[in-house]
């Protein structure tokens, strides 16, 4: 779904291992700012032998955040739980009790045809008696979408499976590092993932299949300090935007502001978007010069872009800088 601002609002999604005991106090103290989302991860960031302990800490952390909200006001990010198996969704929703109210949804890792039915069934069952419903964000990162012989069928097959819960799919997410891992790739701060042809081709295919119906988030950038990291993430965000991605997975608070700034809408684009959205459709002409007089605005051609631009302005803001 991409017909409402909510689907554009995830922004920078900060990943945090679910066993991090300090996360509740960091949230209530607004140590990460006031414009990001949070993923509590039970999957790759947790040793397989310590999952039960991480689940206990996650439940404790979410309960602490929920209790703190009853006592004082602070910025509450959208909170997602990244599970590692379908059954965790129902189990955690029960164990969280009232505090499940502050969970926005669940992140499904390595989403593939072999596991899709189980996750979709869990989300559908959970939402059948729940108001408001919880969202799901599947991650496309498994080896099944690397194979050229089957990639097309896999991507369209997964899209068909998601169709019954389409309104609950907040974002489609891509696992850039997982896909790079399959080939043994790792980019430097001066390099964009969109320069790595085998990975860029997979990302392009995901946008081709899902981009007309869903918001797709950009891949993680793993640098957060050192020479050139800020310039590198800015370049990759520019590539992400050009290629159809909105928002980005982040792994350090240093990255949050850069992602938010990178997705701001230019004043020029915002004015043109409003011009197109407010078009008098009773007029005989559906084309005119833009507000700034330097390009063409055409209602039928640019209406989807204008809608998307308005939602992004609502979620990320408007800047006088070119974007």
The overall pLDDT average reads: 95
Spatial extent as radius of gyration? 20 Å
**CATH architecture tag of the largest domain:** Alpha-Beta Barrel
Helical fraction equals 40-55%
- From N to C, what is the helix and strand string? EHEHEHEHEHEHHEHEHEHEEHE
Secondary structural class: alpha/beta
Concise structural overview:
The protein is an alpha/beta fold and 323 residues long. Helix content is 42%, strand content 14%.
Explain this structure:
The mean pLDDT is about 95. The protein has about 325 residues and is α/β, with parallel strands linked by helices. The protein has helices at about 25-30, 50-70, 85-95, 115-130, 150-160, 175-185, 195-210, 230-245, 255-260, 265-275, 300-315, and strands spanning about 10-15, 35-40, 80, 105-110, 135-140, 170-175, 215, 250, 265, 285-290, 295-300, 320. α3 (about 85-95) packs parallel to α4 (about 115-130), α5 (about 150-160) runs parallel beside α7 (about 195-210) and α10 crosses α11. The strands form 3 sheets. The chain has an 8-stranded parallel sheet with strand order 7-6-5-4-3-2-1-8.
């Amino acid at each position: 779904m991409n017909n409402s601002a909510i689907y554009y609002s995830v922004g920078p999604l900060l990943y945090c291992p679910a066993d991090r005991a300090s996360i509740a106090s960091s949230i209530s103290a607004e140590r990460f700012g006031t414009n990001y989302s949070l993923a509590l991860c039970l999957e790759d960031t947790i040793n397989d032998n310590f999952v039960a302990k991480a689940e206990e800490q996650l439940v404790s952390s979410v309960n602490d955040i929920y209790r703190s909200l009853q006592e004082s006001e602070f910025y509450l990010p959208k909170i997602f739980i990244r599970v590692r198996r379908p059954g965790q969704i129902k189990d955690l929703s029960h164990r969280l009790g009232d505090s499940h109210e502050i969970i926005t949804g669940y992140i499904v890792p390595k989403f593939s045809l072999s596991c899709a039915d189980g996750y979709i069934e869990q989300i559908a069952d959970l939402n059948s008696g729940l108001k408001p419903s919880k969202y799901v964000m599947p991650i496309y990162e498994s080896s099944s979408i690397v194979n050229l012989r089957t990639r097309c069928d896999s991507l369209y097959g997964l899209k068909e499976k998601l169709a019954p819960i389409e309104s609950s799919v907040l974002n489609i997410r891509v696992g850039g590092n997982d896909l790079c891992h399959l080939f043994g790739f790792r980019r430097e701060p001066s390099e964009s993932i969109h320069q790595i042809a085998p990975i860029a081709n997979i990302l392009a295919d995901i946008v081709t299949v899902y981009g007309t119906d869903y918001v797709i988030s950009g891949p993680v950038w793993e640098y957060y300090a050192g020479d050139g990291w800020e310039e590198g993430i800015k370049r990759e965000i520019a590539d992400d935007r050009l290629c159809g991605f909105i928002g980005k997975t982040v792994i350090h608070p240093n990255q949050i502001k850069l992602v938010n700034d990178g997705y701001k809408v230019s004043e020029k684009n915002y004015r043109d978007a409003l011009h197109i959205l407010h078009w008098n459709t009773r007029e005989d002409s559906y084309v005119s010069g833009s507000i700034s007089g330097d390009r063409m605005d055409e209602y039928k051609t640019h209406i989807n872009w204008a809608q998307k631009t308005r939602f992004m302005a609502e979620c990320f803001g408007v800047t006088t800088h070119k974007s």
